[in-house]
Design goal:
The chain has about 350 residues and is mostly helical. The protein has 11 helices and no strands. The protein has 2 domains: about 180 residues, no CATH class; about 160 residues, no CATH class. α1 runs antiparallel to α11 and α6 runs antiparallel to α7. It starts with a helix and ends in a 5-residue tail after the last helix.
Length: about 350
C-alpha cells in the first residue's frame, strides 16, 4: 500500500469507529426511553421507509398493540407517545443502515482500485462479517422481548453491546496500525505492556457486566455509594442456585461486580500512570497513561452519580458513551506499548 492508500483506508477505519460510537449513544437513548420494542418487525430494505400518513401510523400502532409491551407496560399509550418511542428505534436502525453503506461503498471502491494489501483486505472482510452479524444479533435481541415478557434478554443485550465494542475496537486498532511513524522499540516497557493487557482484560469484563447491569435494571437498586445501604457485601449476593448464576441473573450481585471491577480498574490505571513516570518513559507514553487515568476517573464519577440518581437518561447515556471512549484510549495505550515492545502483525 502506498502512503496515500494508507491514509484513505485509515480515514475509512476512523469513520467506522466514529459511527459506531454514534450508534452506541443512540442505542443507549433507545434502551433508556423504552423504545427498543416499538418496531415489531425487521425489514432490512423496506423498513427504511417509516409510516408517513396518519393511516400508516395507526396501522403501525395497532401492530404494536398486539405485543406484550403494550399490553403489560404501555396500555393506554397515545399515538403521539408511540411516535416518540418509534422515532428512537427507527433512528437506531437507520444509523445502522448508514454505517453499512459507509462501509460497503468504500470497501468496494478500495477493492476495485486494488488499494488494499493482503492484511487490510483480511481485516476489511472481518469487519464486514462482524457488521452483518451485528445487524442479525440486534434483531435476535429484539425478538426476545416480543414474546411473553416485554424485556430483551440480558444475555442477548450483553452480546449485542459487546459486539459493538469489538467492531469499534477493530476500527481503532486497524487505524492505528496504519500510522506512518512509530518510535523505536523499548524493551523496558514490557512491564507496562503487561499492566495494560490486564487493564484491557478487566475492562472487557466490565463492559459485559455493564450490559448485564442494564439488562437486569440493576442500577435502580442499592443507590448508595460507596457501600450498598451500609453493606460492603449485601446479604442477597448469593441467593440464586446454582452459585454461578448470581453473577449474571442476580441484580445485587451484578451491580456489586460492576462496582468492584470499576474500582479495580482505577487501581490498575494508577499503577500504570505511576510506573510510566518512574520508568522515565517518553512524553507520549506519559500522556497516554495520564489520559487513561483521567478518562477512567471521570467515568467512575459519572457511574457513581448515575447510580445515586437512579439512572437518569442523560447520565446513563453519558456513562455508556464514556465506556467506549475509555475503551478507545486503553486500546491506544496498548497499541503504543505493543509497537514499542513487540513486533508482530494481526
Amino acid at each position: 500500500m502506498t502512503s496515500k492508500d494508507k491514509k484513505y483506508v485509515r480515514i475509512w477505519y476512523w469513520s467506522g469507529a466514529v459511527l459506531v460510537f454514534l450508534i452506541l449513544i443512540i442505542g443507549g437513548i433507545t434502551r433508556l426511553t423504552g423504545s427498543g420494542l416499538s418496531m415489531t418487525d425487521w425489514k432490512p430494505i423496506m423498513g427504511a421507509i417509516p409510516p408517513i400518513t396518519e393511516t400508516q401510523w395507526e396501522a403501525a400502532f395497532d401492530q404494536y398493540k398486539q405485543f406484550p409491551e403494550y399490553r403489560q407496560v404501555n396500555r393506554g399509550m397515545s399515538l403521539s407517545e408511540f411516535k416518540f418511542i418509534f422515532f428512537w428505534e427507527y433512528l437506531h436502525r437507520m444509523v445502522g443502515r448508514f454505517i453499512g453503506i459507509v462501509f460497503i461503498v468504500p470497501f468496494a471502491w478500495f477493492l476495485i482500485k486494488k488499494k488494499f494489501d493482503k492484511q487490510n483486505l483480511r481485516r476489511a472482510v472481518v469487519l464486514l462479517i462482524l457488521g452483518l452479524g451485528q445487524g442479525l444479533l440486534g434483531w435476535y435481541m429484539v425478538m426476545s422481548g416480543l414474546v411473553d415478557v416485554p424485556r430483551v434478554s440480558p444475555y442477548r443485550l450483553a452480546a449485542h453491546l459487546s459486539l459493538a465494542f469489538i467492531i469499534f475496537g477493530c476500527c481503532v486498532w486497524f487505524a492505528l496500525d496504519l500510522k506512518e511513524k512509530y518510535e523505536k522499540p523499548l524493551r523496558s516497557l514490557s512491564e507496562l505492556y503487561v499492566w495494560s493487557l490486564l487493564f484491557i482484560a478487566i475492562l472487557a469484563l466490565q463492559i459485559v457486566w455493564g450490559a448485564f447491569v442494564a439488562g437486569q435494571h440493576a442500577g435502580h437498586i442499592y443507590n448508595t455509594f460507596p457501600t450498598m445501604f451500609g453493606y460492603w457485601f449485601p446479604p442477597e449476593l448469593w441467593l440464586i442456585e446454582p452459585f454461578i448464576l448470581n453473577f449474571v441473573e442476580n441484580m445485587v450481585t451484578v451491580q456489586w461486580v460492576h462496582r468492584v471491577a470499576g474500582t479495580l480498574l482505577v487501581l490498575i490505571s494508577l499503577v500504570i500512570w505511576i510506573r510510566a513516570f518512574m520508568l522515565k518513559t517518553n512524553f507520549n507514553l506519559k500522556m497516554w497513561a495520564l489520559s487513561l487515568l483521567a478518562v477512567l476517573l471521570i467515568q467512575y464519577a459519572v457511574g457513581v452519580f448515575t447510580l445515586i440518581y437512579h439512572v437518569p437518561l442523560w447520565l446513563g447515556v453519558l456513562h455508556q458513551a464514556l465506556a467506549m471512549v475509555l475503551f478507545g484510549v486503553a486500546l491506544g495505550l496498548v497499541h503504543f506499548l505493543r509497537k514499542g515492545v513487540l513486533s508482530f502483525e494481526f
